[in-house]
Batch of 3 targets.
Target 1
Amino acid sequence: RHARDWVLRLGNFPVTRALQAFVAAPQATDHVLVDPLPRWQDPANVLDQIVAADPAAVCAALNGHALTGAPPAWMAAFAAAEAAVVARPPPAAGEGGHLQAVLGALPDHCPVFVGNSLLIRELDAFSGSGAGTIEFFANRGASGIDGNVSTALGIAAGRGRVVALLGDLTCQHDLGGLAAAAGLDALIVVFNNGGGAIFAHLPQAGLPEFEQGWLTPQSIDFAAAAQTFGLAYRAANTPDATATAVAAALQAGGPSLLELRLDRRAGLAERQAWAQAMAGLDLA
């Protein structure tokens, strides 16, 4: 309903699918990329022009011209749609409510590593906005669940602190990486939803072999794992308890593991109801 006349992109193609689809939709008359590096940045095959230049220099040059803004109603409509969505609370039983609880408890300029699969998608959907600044890191080039704990601890070593948001299978896959946590200010937050919960959002959820072949639930004891590698351990199962536990872990400092025990089926049902409610909003 709010088609754009042109797109000016600086640097990489967007990571999230929703923004990719919006940027790559065919309504725009001009799609311009500004990138000083000689690399291919048009996976959607939508570019009309490539400006091989420093983005800051291009923006400074544009500011020297008389620019025509979009109609005020265009941006106002986007702001109204955003406000309508933000006003609806995220699913408290699933990842969304806990993600907002974690982000709300973080100090300014906190480095946050986000694991792949479901969590990074739910972060995209439910992270919201705030006055503070958060630095996000992710292994998007490699994807997969290899080495996520180790990557997060490398960030802690370089930045002085990290909060890592990981699924239970992702954490288990690199459990040995916790051995590097000693002496680091690192909070590992494990969203334990009973396996590969992302596949419950996909068509294979209806297959008879779904649980064994796709969900692959595990029975790892994260409290014992934390004790094995010398991390403090906490657990939570509601967003309020999550916010309290995150604040306590950050105040205490040092390496710690927070296990969020989520009900996958309840979270999925609430997530689906939330999506239906969003589809029913009048965002014209």
Target 2
Amino acid sequence: SALAGDATTGEIYEAYMPDLSVPIASTTKLMSYLIIMDAVSAGEISLDDMVVISEKVAALSLTDDGVIKLEEDQLCTVSELLYATLLASSNEAVLAIAEHIAGTEAAFVKRMNAKALSLGLSSDCVFYNCNGLPIFTDTVAATKIQNHMSAKDMFLLISNILSVYPQIKDITSTKEIKLPMLGYIVKNTN
């Protein structure tokens, strides 16, 4: 599944199986960004809010999927966590923001799926978590559950983000930033 187009005009230049829904891994964080910025825009949270790191977030940070080591009850701003999310693809940072906004990841994911519907994304676009990590079931026939989206859905999502919250480019074009509350320096690999 692939699609190339102009996200500002909506013009599609080339497409190959654009409606095929595929696992999207960390590009999930783009939908999370949209939900986060909607919460900021609605006055529900502020980029300066202090986020308390939960036990779940701290535990994730210590796994192989962790990017930045975080400790339970550590305080970080939404802004620093957002930079860690978009530049370092920090699974724990986006989880911390999701919990801060919605109380639980499950409640945040409900917002993600509702937003997908409101944007007119396909019914095959589905989110199970805020970071894109695969979820392994404990059933007899263990399966791997993953967030899915088509190239066309991703194009529509990006087009929406760039029209509503173009400041994402300020974050994603940052070459390097020191995040003092996280004790981390992020270098952009783009």
Target 3
Amino acid sequence: MSPDTLRVMAIRVQFQRDADRNTTGDGWFDLSDGDSMINPPPHNQRYFSNQLRALRDYYQKVSNGKLILQVETNDGVGHVYPLESDSAWTLPRPMSYYGPNDNEELLDQRLAELFRDAFVLADASGEIDFSKFDCFIIFHAGVGWEFTQEF
């Protein structure tokens, strides 16, 4: 039986720059030469391409080779857009808009808006042929809501 192969691409988006003390960072990716031991910057195109390669290796291992994630071209170029090293598409609103603490329904709505806004920007760039991919990932600046909230 041949392995299943999924062609994976990712886009990088940041928010309107701000100084909101209720969110992490300033809305943009950290492109400094920081010395953090966990997820050290710069969080550029290469950083996220490496994250996709790690994801590819993980799924190949745990599936015993039955699932292959194609995350780069034959010449090793990652499918993380925009392709310029330090670029990201800037969403039309600040981070706090997309991650409100008010209620779960509003949070779901704003998450859907983040996805819509991100893909509208990516599509408008003309840089991506979406028909070449099976799966899409959005990397956004700042810390996400990857946990359950209690309301």
